[in-house]
Specification:
The structure holds 2 protein chains of 2 kinds. By secondary structure, chain A is an alpha+beta fold. Chain A has helices at 43-74, 77-82, 84-103, 117-127, 130-143, 193-196, 200-207, 213-223; strands at 7-12, 20-25, 148-155, 160-167, 179-186. Chain B is mainly alpha-helical. A 3-stranded antiparallel β-sheet of chain B has the order 2-1-3, with helices on both faces. In chain B, α6 runs antiparallel to α8 (166-177). The longest helix of chain B is centred in the N-terminal third of the chain and has 25 residues, at 9-33. The chains are: A alpha+beta, B mainly alpha. The interface between A and B is medium-sized, with 20 and 19 residues. Chain B: Residues 87-183 form the Manganese/iron superoxide dismutase C-terminal domain. Chain B: Mn(2+) binds at residues 15, 68, 152, 156.
Chain lengths: 225, 204
């Protein structure tokens, strides 16, 4: 899974004594073609989702970071605090989507193949079976009002699996600081509308065919060796 | 297809036929089971189920039924242009100019996070017009303000026609779809509840 997140370092060197480095972000590449996830998710959606939506989050996140940097340098507390919602939204959007791309894989690269090893065992322990977990996540995902995400996470303190939902682009940690995302499913309408129209349950049913359990297992084994 | 090419027939078929219809059917199902709620008018139902910020499960569907009714009536074929008469005067009074209003409305619509609505409301207590945003299914009715216009900023409202180009959607709405006639009629009705000032009766 060679997903490289490219970061560029931009330094503001207007005043020699104020050498501040601001790290901005660029769009990470997908490790598969846009059309590789068909028919579960159409190539059109993947392209739009990646090149337009995710890119917009990154662009706006960078903008907000620069403004925040500026405000901090000037000691402008009220502006700094005002920017927080933009940072949470756009930064969250970037973080969430970066995880999402890794959560998906074409079926010939293992997408949809159920988890083996410790994660598979933990799922059976906590939920009875993979199918029961999927049913639960689908139900919670369908019930999200408006825009948001549904997550399978591991609580790294309690060492157990959790199913959670977040609204808008709130990152998972807003629901619990010790939650580590394993699988996130975007249930914003832009993630499925062109293909599934308003039938979000069909999207949720089909996306499991391209879910990359290998990545989820890796993440799980890191927290629960 | 009367709103083509600004809002496609396909969007309306889905938005009205599936989304709105879905909300109506869900609401009916809820009301079948609950006699008390069944007795309310839709406006009252929305206020009651909003429960002062802790909405009951019926709230979302009830409010979305109302919101979409309101939204359809906020548009017309051949819409756009400028408001007229008293509404224009009130906009100029409360926003400075129509272009200020339009700019603020567009800006607000584009900076809305997630799913929601943008409204032109008449604020009852302050006796002036304002632009409001609500998330998901919330409506200014619950704050006792009087909505005059709304724009659906849920992605399903524009995604088929404009993909993620929200700016174009909002501009097209302002240029070609918005029904100032409806807004004017609503404002006239609102004035029976809110006193917007003395009428300018010319002195003989």
């Amino acid at each position: 899974m060679a997903l490289r997140t490219l970061t560029t370092r931009k330094t503001l060197t207007t005043f020699p004594q104020q050498l501040r480095g601001l790290q901005t972000f660029t769009l990470p590449d997908l490790s598969y073609d846009y059309g590789a996830l068909e028919p579960a998710i159409s190539g059109d959606i993947m392209q739009l989702h990646h090149q337009k939506h995710h890119q917009t989050y990154i662009t706006n996140y960078n903008k907000a970071l620069e403004q925040l940097d500026d405000a901090i340098a000037k000691g402008d507390a009220s502006t700094a605090v005002k920017l927080h919602s933009a940072i949470k939204f756009n930064g969250g959007g970037h973080v969430n989507h970066s995880i999402f791309w890794k959560n998906l894989a074409p079926s010939k690269e293992g997408g949809g193949e159920p988890p083996h090893g410790s994660l598979g065992w933990a799922i059976d322990q906590s939920y009875g079976s993979l199918d029961k977990l999927i049913a639960k996540m689908n139900a919670e995902g369908a019930a999200v009002q408006g825009s948001g995400w549904v997550w399978l996470a591991v609580d790294k303190e309690l060492k157990r699996l959790v199913v959670e939902t977040t609204a808008n682009q709130d990152p998972l940690v807003t629901k619990g600081p010790s939650l580590v995302p394993l699988i996130g499913i975007d249930v914003w309408e832009h993630a499925y509308y062109l293909q599934y129209k308003n039938v979000r349950p069909d999207y949720l049913k089909n996306i499991w065919k391209v879910i990359n359990w290998k990545y989820a297992s890796e993440m799980y084994e890191k927290e629960c060796p | 297809d009367a709103l083509e090419p600004y809002m496609s027939k396909r969007t309306l078929e889905l938005h009205w036929g599936e989304h709105h219809r879905g909300y109506v059917e869900s609401l009916n199902k809820y009301l079948e089971k609950d006699d008390i709620l069944y007795g309310y008018t839709l406006d009252e139902l929305i206020r009651v189920t909003y429960n002062n910020g802790n909405p009951l499960p019926e709230y979302n569907v009830a409010a979305q039924v109302w919101n979409h009714d309101f939204f359809w009536e906020s548009m017309q074929p051949g819409g756009g242009n400028l408001p007229i008469l008293g509404l224009l005067q009130q906009i100029e009074k409360d926003f400075g100019s129509f272009s200020n209003f339009r700019e603020e409305f567009t800006e607000t619509a584009l900076t809305l996070f997630g799913s929601g609505w943008v409204w032109l409301v008449l604020k009852r207590n302050e006796k002036r017009l304002a632009i409001a945003t609500t998330t998901n299914a919330v409506t200014p009715l619950v704050w006792d303000d009087i909505p005059l216009l709304s724009l659906d900023m849920w992605e399903h409202a524009y995604y088929l026609d404009y993909k993620n180009d929200k700016a174009r959607y909002v501009n097209v709405f302002m240029d070609h779809l918005v029904s100032w006639n409806a807004a004017l009629a609503r404002m006239a009705r609102a004035q029976s509840f809110v006193n917007l000032g003395e009428p300018k009766i010319p002195v003989a």
